[in-house]
Amino acid sequence: MTSISYAAPTPSFRRQALVTHKLIRHHHGQGAPTPSFRRQALVTSSVIMIFPPIHPLTGMTEFTVEVIFRPDAGGPAEQRFFHMKVGDTEERVMFETRLVEGNQWFMDAFMQTGEQNNTMYAVGDTHEIGPWYHAAIVMDGKIFKHYVNGRMELGKEVDFKPQGPGRTSLGVRINNVFWFKGAIRKVRITPRAIKPGDFLTAED
Prior knowledge:
Blueprint: E1 2-7, E2 15-21, E3 25-26, E4 41-43, E5 48-50, E6 63-71, E7 78-86, E8 92-100, E9 104-113, E10 116-121, E11 127-128, E12 133-139, E13 143-148, E14 151-157, E15 166-170, E16 182-190
């Protein structure tokens, strides 16, 4: 089950599901599948992509984006597996993986806000390919940070401007390049910067 949920800013963080699909495995595709962009999902025999027609971070002055995913071996070196983009601009928030030797990967989190590009290229924090992981991007209005399994890997101060309306893709970059090979189990969006102790876990 794949779910995208919006967490209300209450202590219980109860989630209201926006998208739920009984499909999860994402395979590296050769070329784009047939363009039947109906609502959220596009499916072929070997490729599953999800295209929610919203940018879930629109207007948020702070946020936490969490994703539970499993990178598989044999995928491309660069994979953009969760992409939130503002309209026809280049402003965006992205989760990316980089596969390296030794059956390892590391997180590359990216955010463009206004004209400022912010890359969190955590080449010094590698992880084994195969297990399930929790990753998070946290923006508190001033500091952009990313975490893997509850541990902060990189952070930097940014001149943050809230994201505008747009759209989202899971399993591939919005323009159908840099395909993901693996699985995505859950996404949670919270309109505040939450602490690691309140994160989901890779087992959720």
